[in-house]
Design brief:
The chain is mostly beta strands. The protein is about 10% helix and about 35% strand.
Amino acid sequence: MRQWLLVGKFGAAGESRSKLIDPIPFRVGRRPEASLSLPRATVSGLHAELFTIEDRLYVRDLGSTNGTFINGERIRGEAELDEDDVVQFADVALRVASGAEDKESQTMCEDFCDHALARVQFDKLIRDGIVTPYFQP
């Protein structure tokens, strides 16, 4: 059976961590009893839940105030997640991975989720024609 993880800066000291998505359903929220507790004012008490169907990972927004996003797009209801997607609970962005849980990662991470989210949002601005690039010689 495939193991899914969330990777990002959610530890007490803001270090990069990975969290095995277990048990299923895996609830994310501000409440201490959530499977992944994110003590941020922007995150709802019970913000979202992750669940699997036949080794596929899904996320369901639980009526959160500030929304759940996949690669910068707000979801309504539930949506499927793929490996390397950036899932965002309000302003907390985490990357979806599969494999073994790494409790004490030796790799330092410097805001990769912030950079990934910025890139997704920039690409959306260009794609939707909200901004127009001008090239100067």
